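Help!! Second protein's tokens look totally different from the first
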Amino acid sequence: MTTPNDARSLIAVDLGAESCRVSILRGQNGHPHIELVYRFANAPITKNNALHWPLDTIVNGVEEGLRRCAEIATEGIRSIAVDGWAVDYVRLNDQGEPLDDPFCYRDARNLESEKSLHTRITPEHLRELSGIQIQPLNTVYQQHADTLKDAHARWVNLPEYLLYRWGAKPVAEKTNATHTGLVALDGTWCKEIFEAASIRLEDAPELVEAGTIIGEYNGPIEKLRGAKLIAPCCHDTAAAVAGIPAEGDDWAYISSGTWSLVGTVLEKPCNTTEAARENFTNLGAAGGRFLFHKGLSGMWLLQQSMLQWKLTDVVKLVAEAREVPSFAANELIDVDDPALTQPGDMPARINAQRAARNLSPIHEPARMARLIFDSLAARYATVLRSISQMTGKTFRRIYVVGGASQNELLNELTAKATGLEVIRGAVESSTIGNFAVQFAALENDRSAANVSRWAARLQ
């Protein structure tokens, strides 16, 4: 079921920092059915003393998923789209091939690059021009850190790279491009930022709207050739929000995963002095709208802690944390602390933060997990109050999407801290949003209302 006159299926690829997924949408008795066809693990690798993504592993894994979809879909495939995490990019040589494995946004080089760039252009002016949150992971800092060889090569963001590899023209889809820190508030590449960061504007790909058909598949899988290649909301957060079947204007979202992104959808960017001071961001959304949110560390804090403890059963740990009494407000951790953003011994870093405030260390995993959950819920509440004040919106509901939406303890703590109804959305909301934008593109109606209608139909 795609449209009444076309029974071919659709494929959505979701690139994740921990795992990547390939899903197919088929019609069953006139109703859409989404099936996860293939999932594989993903993680950065250390190469030449730096963090990179294993590009060949990602490409091979995704193409294995595409092969399986092609075998299943005897009716044929109508379109393919890719979303993923933002800010990371692939440099291309003169033949259009990758120069190297792309850097990972968590590589330590970004911290020095941020300092360097701010000697050329102040963070306040960067924010004024782009409207986005100042974070060292933003593409502008990464490209400012690139060697001269890399800095004189064309580039394309990672989700769009896969589409390009299969036959699409090289593009930067706007929901993804806005996270680079290189896009002005009017939706064009910002020449002033490019010049300040010593980035060549001529190497940047063409900017396109979410839902743009950018080519036809001409990759290695013969059965897929001719399928439309669509740039959906290539930023997975924008895809996840596009997958929320919400009506009205009284709702906020939390995209809850490795990162917690807490925000709302606006028709125009909010780039006030207060928004800049609080370091909120304005990123592209489906239908030409904007996500206005703040990024927090999220489940990253727990994931890194569990690695240190050598624990794998998150369900058991959450159940144990439920039995731990809530922490007092003066014991909650600062989840925005830059010291908590790098891989490593997270419990030690959290305890160091506590020690600086003369609080005793925590050694029990359940207590540490409860501290993380209590701290995140309290921070969510603070962020949502700020958003309400800055935008004039009154919230009644919070949609929680993403992998951590299944954490009922955190959902309950969030409801208690905010006083709002918390609605658990789809775990794979980005997949739903990916498909919703594909349908909108195929119907030649990329409006936010049409994307939302498709999202509701695909739940």
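Here's the second one for comparison:
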Amino acid sequence: MLDHDAFERIVTEANQAPSVHNAQPARWRLQRDVIEVAADLSVQLPEADPDQSAIGLSCGAAVEATMLACTARGFQTHVVDHWDDNNRHTWRAHRLAAQIYLSEGGRPDALYDQLGARFTWRSNFEQETPRLFGWTRQDTTLVLDAPTRTWFADHNDTASLAILNRPAFRRELLSWIRLDPVHPRWSFDGLSREALLMPKAVARKVRLGFGPLWSLLRLTGGTKALTAERAQTLTAPVIAAFHVPAGLSATEAGRAYLRLWLEATRLGFAGWPMAALTDHAPTRAAVAKRLNIGADRRLVQVIRFGKPTGPRPPRARRPIAEIMND
């Protein structure tokens, strides 16, 4: 049903899905009329993602993006979620996320056109009243008022600093951000200085501050200034808290996460995740309490949304040979 070239085009499009830390753990292979998506376990970041929930979320977004790319080519899709099976034997050194069964007669999904337009914007947003006509998500609590957005900005900085105070986390982060274009993985994965919208002078401060000078900066109070995002966060007109049923698998959560982001893209927004709010357990609980998210729901991610103040930064993506298995 799918030849090699058609499958390659689908995978290339699907890999535009958001990936936590831009690790891009999703891998694809075609088994007759079934596309398998699995997590390459060699790309796990143990400090940032000890329970593989971020890997599962990223793979779920990749599954949904694959479905979108398939429906755009006239296929119907049926997705079977395997994340909670913890299947590591079907595909060596991988954890199976889902199987996508293909048949003829599909119709393009309305969100397909937003897949290539979606991007992350890690800087100030335009100052304007957000227009939310067409927003349909019931799994997302939108924060629009200034006092609550300020509360989120303050808690995000506090949680981020608490996480960065762990030396092992900082070492892992420095190994994953690309502060110099000569880095061999600059265009492929991780967080480049371009993607972070980080000037060269700031990159030098980060390399030293997150590395050998952290302890000294901490004594003088400099770590707070080095890691703060409060000013940029307050420019975001919308903060979206994405939450799902407590028992939903990471793959299914990732599928919904992509659709949430694509709906925001359709409204003209770029996004900037506030990962610290959910990675730091006490802050995650505080956010859930603040927004009245009950115990029957799981807070997955909080995202700043707004219109960017500059051009879209380059997108780093793994080459097809790394992500597609024949």
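Reply: Different proteins will give different token patterns, so don't panic. The mean pLDDT is 97.
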